[in-house]
Amino acid sequence: GPGMGMESGMGAMEAEMERDPSAYLVFEKLQSGAPCLSFDILQDRAAAAEVPASTAPLSLYLCAGTQAETTAANRLILMKLSNVRVSEPKVGSDSESDSSDDDDEEDEEKQPRLEIAMIPYHGTINRVRVQTVGDSPVAAVWSERGQVDLWRLQELVKAVEVPEAMAHFLQKRQKEQRPLTSFTGHMAEGYALDWNPLVAGRLVTGDVKGRLHVWEPREDGTWSVDQRPLTGHSQSAEDVQWSPNEPTVFASCSVDSSLRVWDIRAPPSAACMISVPNAHSSDVNVISWNRMEPFLVSGGDDGAVTVWDLRQLQTGQSVATFKQHTAPITSVQWHPSDPGVFAAAGADDRVTQWDLAVERDGEAGAEEARLPPQLLFVHEGDNDLKE
C-alpha cells in the first residue's frame, strides 16, 4: 500500500497528524520570508552537485518569486541549500547519549546551510522558470502587472557561492540589477510559462485571456516576440509544456476545460494541431509532458489527475484518471528518470506520488483495497501548496 508521510489515512483529515521521519530520506524546511506562488530548480547546478546520497551531503539551487503583502516588498530569490544529509536510522541506547562538546561541534557541521540572494521586484510573481542561456541561468518571470521579464541570475549564483561576492552584491550590485528584456504585449497577467528544452532561449508564455506568445532568441543575446498570439483557447491559458523531442511543438491547458497541442511552424491563427475540448469537467490548471514516453498528465479544478497517451490524444480518451484529491490540483510533475512515476499537489494540502506500473496485489488488506494500487505515497501537513 502507499506510504504515508503523515500518520493518517486519506480520509482522516481531522485527526492529529504527526510526521513519520522514517518515511523520508530528506526532510528540510526553509523560509523564503514571504509566500511564493512559484519556484524552479536550477537543473544545471543540480546535475553538477549530484553525488551518491549515501556518501556525501546534497546541494540544491532554487529560484522563487514572492507574493508579499505589499507590491514593493516582492523579491526574486535565489537560494542555495547545501550540506543536506540523508536521514540515518537512530542507533544506540539512551544510556550512551551523554553529550559532549565534540558531539555539539559534529552536529553543527551536519546542519544544512542556506544562502540567499534577492532582487527587488515590483509586484507579485505568478510564475518563474529557469534555463541556462549562454553563460548564465536566466529566470523568466510572469508578473501580476501583465508583463514577462527575463533576468540573468549569474551574479546571484556567484553571491550564494562566494562570501566576498555576496558582500559586493549586497553593497553595490543588488540595487543595480535590471531585466535583460521585458514583454508587455500580453495586455493581461498570466501563469503559463515554459522554456524549450531543445532550443536554448526559446520560450512560450500564455495569459488569462487565452493568448499565447512565442519568444525566439537572437544571436546578439536579445529576444524577438511574435506580436501575433496563437489563438484557440477561449479562456485563460493556465499552463504550457514544450515537447521533449520536437522543438516546435508544445501543449497547453485552459480554464475552457481543454488541452491543445500546437506547432509553431504554422501561422499563429492555424498553429493548433490537436484539441481535446472537455479534458476535465472544469478548469484544467496544470500539465506535465513526460520526458521519456509519449504521455501527458493534467490536473484540474475537479480534483482529477488524468494521464493521456499523446498518440491517442485526438480521440479524447485518457489512459487513466485518479480522483484521490478532494480539491483543485495545483501542480503535476513527471519523475525525471522513471517514466511511470509522477507527483501531484492539490488545494487539499496533499502531495501524492503515483506509479502507473503498479498493479493491485491480490493479497491486499481492506485498507489498501480502498486505495488505487498506483498510489505510492501521500505527504500532508503543509498549507496552500502551489508547486
UniProtKB/TrEMBL annotation:
WD repeats, residue ranges: 230-265, 277-318, 322-356
Keywords associated with the record: Nucleus, Repeat, WD repeat
Matches recorded under Pfam families: CAF1C_H4-bd, WD40
Protein name in the entry: Glutamate-rich WD repeat-containing protein 1
Domain Histone-binding protein RBBP4-like N-terminal per the UniProt entry, residue ranges: 19-84
GO biological process assignments: ribosome biogenesis
Start-end of Acidic residues biased regions: 95-109
